[in-house]
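Lecture 7 notes: from sequence to structure.

We start with a single chain of 193 residues. Read the sequence below before looking at the structure.
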Amino acid sequence: MKKPAAPKSARKPRSDAQRNRERILEVAKQVFTRRGADASMGEIARRARIGPGTLYRNFATRDDLLATVYMTEVEKLAAAQKKLSAELPPIEALRAWLLVFIDYIAAKKIIAPALNAMTGGPSRVFQQTMQVMEEAANALAGRAVASGDLRPDVDPIDLMRAIYGLSTDGSADDWPAKARKFVDILLQGSRPL
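Now the structure, written as C-alpha cells:
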C-alpha cells in the first residue's frame, strides 16, 4: 500500500515574489484611482514591470486584485494600531490612529467607484474589513479609558462615524484638513469631566 504524501508546509514567499506583489498592489491602486473599474489588467502589469502571468498568478481576477488593494489599506490601519499602541501614550495613540483613519477614508473614496463595480458589489469586502477597523479602534479606546484619558461612555465607533461624516460632504475638497482639526475637538470633548 502506498504511503500518503506528507502535507506541504506553507512556506514564506520569496523576497522577489513579495516585492512583485507589493508593487502590483501599489500600481493597481494608482491605476484604479485614475481609470476606475475599467482599468486594464494589462496596463497594471506593464506599469508594475511584470508579465501578465505574474499578475494573474497573484490575482486571478480584477475583483480579486481590487479587493486586495482595499484590504491592504485596512491592514495598514491594523498595523498602525499595534505600532502606535507600542510607541505612544494611550490618548496620543488614539489621536494618531484617527489621523491614519482619515488617510484610509481618502484612499477608500478614491477607489470606491471601482469597488462598487465589483461583481456582486463591494459588501463582502467591506464586511471582511469592518471588523479589523472596529477591533483597532476598540483596542486604542480601551487603553485610553484605562489610563483615564477617555470617558468610558465614549464609543470609538462613534468617533469614526463622526470623522467619516466629514468626508461625505461632496463639495468639500478640503475635508481631510477639516477632519484632522475635528479629531482634536472630538477627543477634547471625550475627556473625563
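The longest helix spans residues 90-116. Keep this in mind for problem set 3.
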